[in-house]
Amino acid sequence: MKSVRIILSILMPLLFAACTYEFDLQPSAESGRPVLYVFPGNRDTIVIQCSRSVPVTRPDSLKPSVSGAEISVWVDGEFCPVQWNGQATPAVPKGCYYYVKRMQAGQKVQIDCRLPEGDHVKGETVVPEQIPIDDWNIAMTNQKNSQMVEFRLRFTDKGGKRFYGLRVEKMVQDAWIYEEDTVHYQYLQTELCQIDKEPLLSESNGLEGVLTEYRQYENGFYIWDNERLRGKPYTLKIYTNPERSWDRPNGTYSHVYYRMVFYSLSEPYFRYLESRNAQINNELGDMGFSPVRPDYSNVDGGIGVVGAYQVEYTPWVRL
After folding, report:
1. Which residue of 19, 36, 128, 164 has the fewest CB atoms within a 10 Å radius of its CB?
2. Is 7 among the domain residues?
3. Exposure class string for 145-168: b at 16+ Cβ within 10 A, else e
4. What is the pLDDT of residues 157-206, one digit of tens each?
């Protein structure tokens, strides 16, 4: 009972503070605000998502993209032609703009977008340096009397201000017999991992660290900065429950593969992901004890993010 009183005494001032925020919804109530999302990286095709936010008075007006926009892209001052993609392709979703250019570290990317209604939105970012993977391993390991898949990644921070990300991908290839035919099926997904033993990902600070059992990351995209690394090598370890491959004499099988995807992120990209995670972990806000946290935005004239990255993949490992 005493501990409950202590927690309530801490939370009550936050409750009153959370009730002092006022929001004027009228300016964006008519047509919504322009939205721009661009994430240049070391891939050949860069997708540009240009849309408009949904007005609170017209929740049925959601449109995934805006066609007919005038979009200009400059990379270190060099103009890059932008194309509209009306039909989905393996590289570009339907209803997106795109340009083709493999980005390199240190390049400055500037995006200027004019919507058909006359709205003007723009943003810029700098492509970060790729921090290479020094060593890695994906293997079965014993954890508390049960077997887990361990993902171990070693890298060396170069100091300064740097931001990182990691995803674990799982690919499953199946073969089944349907009537008298063999049907092949393949799918790829992001694996949600156990991070409670990894200090860079699991430690929370402040009051939320006391009230939150564990930190969550949106869509299994684990991010961290180099505040505690500062030019030193580090080995990161996370785990997941195994899904085993198998083969049968009749020719059916299920083959399971894992790989790690290691990101070097620009600060705007990191801040955006950080703000998304803050919303997921804002249990105080869910209880009404703190304000709802908005998405990070570095776009002028609207909302959205222009953030860059570099990415490196490990080979697939079959388990």
Report:
1. 19
2. no
3. eeebbbbbbebebeeeebbbbbbb
4. 999 999 999 999 999 999 988 877 888 889 999 999 999 999 999 865 54
Domain that holds residue 270: 133-293+312-318
CA distance 242 to 267: 34
Separation CA 39–CA 46 (nearest Å)? 7
Domain end, chosen from 108, 126, 144, is at: 126
Alpha-carbon span 9 to 262, nearest angstrom: 43
State the Cα–Cα distance between residues 131 and 263, nearest whole angstrom.
8
Instruction: Say yes or no: 206 and 282 in one domain.
Output: yes
Instruction: State which residues of the chain have pLDDT below 70.
Output: 1-31, 55-64, 203-214, 282-293
Based on the domain organization, do 224 and 273 belong to the same domain? Answer: yes
Cα–Cα distance, 35 to 28 (Å, whole number):
12
Residue type, 179: E
pTM: 0.82
What is the tally of structural domains in the chain?
Answer: 2
CA distances from 233 to 76, 104, 131, 162, 197 (A): 32, 24, 11, 14, 18
Closest by CA to 121, choosing from 132, 110, 106, 135, is 110
Predicted confidence at residue 153, as pLDDT, reads: 98
Dist. CA 194–CA 256, nearest whole Å: 19
Give how far Cα 154 sits from Cα of 160, 173, 205, 236, Å. 19, 28, 25, 6
CB half-sphere exposure, 132, CA atoms < 13 A? 2
Q: How far apart are CA 266 and CA 296, in angstroms?
A: 13
